[in-house]
Structures are given as C-alpha cells and as structure tokens.
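Continuing the series of single-chain predictions for the mutant panel. This is the parent chain; the variants come on the following pages.
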Amino acid sequence: MKKNIMNKYSYWFTADEHFSHNNILKYCNRPFKSIESMNNAIINRHNAVVNDNDIVIHAGDFTFKEPEKYIERLKGKHIFIKGSHDKWIPEEGALKIWEKEIEGIYIVVCHYAMRTWARSHYNSWQLFGHSHGQLEGMGKQMDIGVDTHNFYPYSFDQIKKVMDKKEDNFNLVEKHEK
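Parent structure:
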C-alpha cells in the first residue's frame, strides 16, 4: 500500500524583475551586459531555489508585456501583484495587496512600501518592491526586490531571519500599553 504523502511547499517572495525592460540595466546599474543575460540570470537563479510546488509572490514590476514568455520558464505557482510596469495585468480585478498568515506571522505584500498596513500594530510584516533597494524599511518592513538579493527570490525563512533582527513596528500595541 502506498503512503499518501502530502505535497510540501514553501513560500518565496520577489519583486522588480523587470523582464525585458532595456533601461533597467542603466537605471539600477544592474551588472549584466545585455537584457537577455539579465532575463536568463534571474530565471536561472529563481529556478535554482524554487521548486515546482512552491508558491511565489511577485510584488510587482514583473514585465511590461508577454508575461507567459517568462512564467513558463519559472518554477513554482505564481501570484502576481500589480506594479507600476505591469501593463499586462488588467486594472479591473488586479491584485494590489496580498495578505496571508504563515507560521503564525501575518504578512502584507504590496508593490509599494506603506507607512502602516494591516495588523502592523501587532507586528505584522510588510514586504514591498518598487524602490530597488533605495528605501530602508521601518520596523517589520522589507524590500524584497531582486536588486536587494543578488537577483534571487527570498524564501520565507530568509525573511524571517531578517525580521527577527529588526525593531518592532512603531505602532505595536504592546509597546504603547506598557
């Protein structure tokens, strides 16, 4: 008799891939000789760490157009949050914020950094992109863009290690009740 093995998966977070965006090489001083080499490096690094059953949250600016050209090459199951360059995602019904509790931690993902976010007063995390490593998060906030992680996505465990060292959110209820 075969054992029923549950499919195990991990969560991964990324943003600002900017596939086929020619000007991103100079705008962000990305270390690639061509847009094709950048596209291939991001895909190869993604696939080196993400498994087929993993869930990948893309926090915006995936590509201007032809997303299927890249999605079909990336491992994982993908959730896309609309960023400022995602013209391929219809405005109506577009996901702008993704929220989920993972291992008892409430996580809010948006393309943009927020000053406060859902459950921030309970030390929830806010993960964002858009700033390409140029904006330091406040409290339990983190820029998850590829420019901040050598063009790899972040695993939940990697983010947890970073967040464990960060200060509490400024509006943490417990902090104000003491």
